[in-house]
Amino acid sequence: MRPAASPPCRRIAHALRLLPLALAAAGPGAGTAAATPQRIVSLNLCTDQILLQLVGRERIAALTHLSQDAFSAALHEQARGLPTVRGNAEEVLALSPDLVLVGTYTTRHTTAMLRRYGIPVVAVPGASSFADVADEIRTVARAVGEEARGEAIIGRFNARLAELAAKHREPRPVATQFASGGYSAGSGTLYHDIFAAAGHDNGAARAGLAGYGILPLERLVGQAPDILVGSDYRRGTPTLGNRLLQHPAIANLGAREVVLPARLTICGGPWNLDAAALLAAGGSGR
Q1: Once rounded to an integer, what is the mean pLDDT over residues 43-67?
Q2: Residues with Cβ < 8 Å from 4, sequence gap 6 or more?
Q3: String of DSSP letters for 10-43
Q4: Of the candidates 118, 104, 122, 97, which has an alpha carbon nearest to the alpha carbon of residue 37?
Q5: Residues 104-146: pLDDT tens digits?
Q6: Residues paired with 206 in a beta bridge
Q7: What is the b/e burial string over 28-65, where b = at least 16 CB atoms within 10 angstroms of the residue's CB?
Q8: How many CB atoms lie within 10 A of CB 116?
Q9: What is the CATH number of domain 7-158?
Q10: How open is the CA angle 154-157-158, to the nearest 5 degrees?
Q11: Predicted confidence (pLDDT) at residue 72 exceeds the cutoff of 50
Q12: Do domains 7-158 and 174-280 have the same CATH topology?
């Protein structure tokens, strides 16, 4: 005798049985690649925010639970009230989506299962530059049938970037991200392009750091940054990593601290230019 299916397996099977009925109710052509998606699920914080810019709420079946987190998501207010998921295959299948947006390196098991059952899935790589931001927007806009709206978003982004560039002054200040434990952002990161948009040089990149990683204290001091870009993540938590930020060598730099909110830097999008404007203005520090 065959063993009884586990509860998760039974729920997945039930969702799959309902899927054809839901697609039929959605209308002719629903669930096909040629149709404009009407039940879109996003399983990545960054695709959440791209999607919110491109389609109406009525076309969004669910976003991630982080989409409504004020710390992480720039568009958390816009996401409020929409259904959320945590990325389990069973809860996604139960929504009968006709398109699922995922990150390249996240929810891999769910992604594989959705594709196995014929659900259209579009994987969107994370952005490491403003050029990547435009690519991400175009990828999602094409998937949801909103290419013109995507190009309009990119056009506004580039126009504001030009406005910021017109305000640059020489000599360019040196800004260095230096967070808990010496974590920093060098070349090939969103921070690098945000700093450049603000008219600042990236001290970590000048010190030889590529990508994200640890910047040794002596290399930080050697760059003599004008601005230290801090993090708003658990700043008051007593950890060894945070103790490093109190080192006398850092205090002796005389650098001004600017805190760029995580929601403006985690994902690529127009909010990155809000971070650049904040940095250019010297920030409030908090």
Answers
A1: 98
A2: none
A3: HHHHHHHHHHHHHHHHH-TTTTSTTSPPSSEEE-
A4: 97
A5: 988 899 999 999 989 999 999 999 999 999 999 999 999 999 9
A6: none
A7: eebbeeebebbbbbbbbbbbbbbbbbbbeeebbbbbbe
A8: 9
A9: 3.40.50.1980
A10: 90
A11: yes
A12: yes
CATH top class, domain 174-280: alpha beta
Domain extents for the chain? 7-158, 174-280
Task: Pull the structure tokens for residue 238.
Answer: 């007593």
CA distance 115 to 8: 18
Phi, psi of 207 (to 5 degrees): -85, 0
Taking alpha carbons only, the member of 230, 233, 213 closest to residue 178 is 230
Give the tokens for residue 21.
Answer: 């009925």
Q: For strands 121-124 and 174-177, give the pairing.
A: unpaired
pLDDT at 12 over 80: no
Q: Which residues contact 269 (CB under 8 A, 6 or more apart)?
A: 46, 49, 50, 53, 74, 133, 137
Q: 16 vs 117, which has greater pLDDT?
A: 117
Question: In a 3-state reduction of DSSP, which class is residue 84?
Answer: strand
The tokens of 250 are what?
């850092």
Q: Residue 159: its pLDDT value, please?
A: 98
| Residue carrying structure tokens 């259904």 | 83
Query: SS3 for 228?
Result: strand
CB 20 within 8 A of CB 32: no
- Only one residue has tokens 């990508």, namely 211
Q: Which residues in 120-149 are b (16+ Cβ under 10 Å) and which e?
A: bbbbbebbbbbebbbbbbbbbbebbbbeee
Q: Which two tokens stand for residue 102?
A: 């995922």
Residue reference for tokens 């982004």: 157
pLDDT at 232: 82
